[in-house]
Design brief:
It contains ten helices and no strands. The protein has helices spanning 2-16, 20-27, 42-49, 51-80, 92-111, 124-134, 136-153, 156-173, 178-194, 196-204. It starts with a helix and ends in an 18-residue tail after the last helix. The mean pLDDT is 90.
């Protein structure tokens, strides 16, 4: 089991570490780290490269998280408990622990990608993908909170911070176990920490709103 566990951790991290935003921008001749907010996430890609590129990066980053959880499910089912009825296995909690660990590793891979000197995104989309797979009802509540705050403020960062606070509450309200509540709390705190620069800009009144005047298009390499 130890070898499979280590393999799952490494694969989940590497899956999460794929720097989607950086790669999409690089394909267009832009170093996304040197323009806009400098972040490799979907919001900065959206502002700099447009809606299509932003939606693609958002989707891909979410899929990384969900896929890590699904891979963990497959590992547990096929190698440890080859049965479709998880209620009948001797230790069903092992199944859920593997899924949670894989999700955490994918998020850490996104936030601290080894391909960019351990500087990555803020993990919101990848966290969304993880919890869409782990706790769909809680994810739906957090997403609703995000949408309401974004619609009212047009600040992606503020909406993401509120969703990060709402997530562990939603996990608790939807009847999930203590471990998942703890995981969601830790990941929510990490997401807020990654937004520390945004929080300062919100305080200063200098944070960018979606729908505000776009920055000048970056020069592309010829």
């Amino acid at each position: 089991m130890a070898a499979a566990f280590i393999t799952l951790v490494v694969l989940s991290y590497l899956l999460g570490s794929i720097p989607t935003g950086f790669l999409v921008a690089k394909a267009k001749g832009v170093d996304i780290r040197s323009v806009g907010s400098g972040n490799i996430g979907a919001t900065n890609v959206f502002r700099i490269l447009g809606k299509g590129a932003g939606i693609f990066v958002l989707t891909a980053d979410a899929v990384k998280g969900a896929l890590a959880v699904r891979i963990a499910e497959t590992v547990v089912r096929e190698f440890f408990f080859p049965t479709d009825n998880l209620a009948n296995i001797g230790r069903p909690e092992v199944f859920y622990h593997f899924r949670e660990i894989a999700g955490i590793c994918a998020i850490l891979g996104h936030n601290y990608t080894c391909w960019l000197k351990f500087k990555g995104g803020k993990g919101i989309a990848t966290t969304a993908g993880v919890f869409a797979a782990l706790a769909p009802a809680a994810f739906g509540i957090a997403l609703a909170a995000w949408l309401v705050v974004f619609a009212a403020s047009r600040y992606v960062s503020l909406a993401s911070i509120v969703a990060a606070v709402a997530l562990p509450l939603a996990v608790w309200l939807t009847g999930n176990g203590g471990l998942l509540i703890g995981v969601s709390t830790a990941l929510g705190a990490l997401a807020i920490y990654k937004h520390k620069a945004n929080i300062q800009r919100l305080r200063d009144g200098t944070e960018n709103r979606i729908g505000a005047k776009k920055p000048a298009p970056p020069e592309t390499k010829t």
